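Q: Predict the assembly, please.
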Amino acid sequence: MKTSEKKQKIVIAVTALNAIDSPGPGVAVIRALKESADFEVRIIGLSYESLEPGIYMHDIVDKTYQIPYPSAGTDALFARILYINNIEHLNVVIPNFDAELFNFIKISDELQKLGIHSFMPTQDEFEGRDKINLFKFGKKHDLLVPSDKIIFHAGELAKAAEKFGFPLVVKGKFYDAVICNTIEQAEKAFFKLQAKWGLPIIIQEFITGTEVNIAALGDGCGNAISIIPMRKLYITDKGKAWAGITIDDQILIDLAMKFIKVTKWRGGCELEIMMTSDGKPYIMEVNPRFPAWIYLTAAAGQNQPAALVKLALGQKITPFKKYDIGKIFIRYSWDLITDISEFHKIAGSGEL
Amino acid sequence: MRLKKNIATSEAGLIFNPGTGDSFSVNNTGAEILVMLKDNKKHEEIIEYLSSKFDVEKIQLEKDMDDFIYLLSDYNLLEK
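A: Predicted assembly structure:
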């Protein structure tokens, strides 16, 4: 371990401080960064809502600034980051929400000119792995993905049901998926997801098996810097892992290596895999950022957030070779107590 | 009939499959059988050992052993 004097001091802005029941990855990313042997970090939280728990975790986040919602566009985001940078002199920014990535990717060159480094997928990579394009994406790169049909009208459900049979999965454009056993259930799910996330709706072939997730980090040149497969041990009603364990499965590691190689993936990502009983790994989704369980990678010996910071800063990095198998994370809830004055500060001035 | 090389077992009878993340527990006799399987003992040798330890008819032991092996195989713990 290096002494703190030798550690490089850097200021890192991190989003997704919503450590709630379906958590954003921000707090886990910060926890991993703080354990880096190479950096001494000052963490600047970037929040959207005033009740994101990370805002009030002062041992985790040094200062938080609210930023505009993604719908406000890139100009508003850039203006806010410019303001924050004038005070904090940011070195690196790590966005962790799917919905905000488009804007951050768009302004990444401008941020770089200000000396704010990032390490995100390219626009093409980001769009290619989108739920709506996943089947095409799988075909293009020879990766196993479930068949799907993109629909815009409930009237198209019957045809999709004919194609896939029941059960089938009705998925929202951004989030949520419902397993349906009848056409009536599928229609109900269609309208519910349409109201919540808009059109189109994705009808997907139902694949049964064991749910495994892989956290991976690509260097943008086709090399995998880190790959950690995690088997979900406890799944919430929202399908999130509440407990998980690192596993050693060469099929999964090979799959992630292939994914990073063929896409030349740049940055962190999470592959959601359904492993069938005959050992076929289907990619169900590709999340273009670190997952909420990313701290497990640091606990298992491959600190992916710290490695991403090195990549962002253009430092040389050797791919990790080993990790601890059988490391378990168990998420827990904790009632953080704060004062109304703190809430007033972030809600009123947008800073805390 | 061999345990997969990467399967971890403990004296307390806990089994961990690092490939799948599955964990299982067995009683003392099961733990002893696992140790013997890890040591590549033959089926007959294990039956002999159990026969000397327990006052059970050999045919019953064979049946119980087959059931146990079937379970290990079903849980994907044996080499194919």
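The mean pLDDT of chain B is 90. Residues 8-74 of chain B form one domain.
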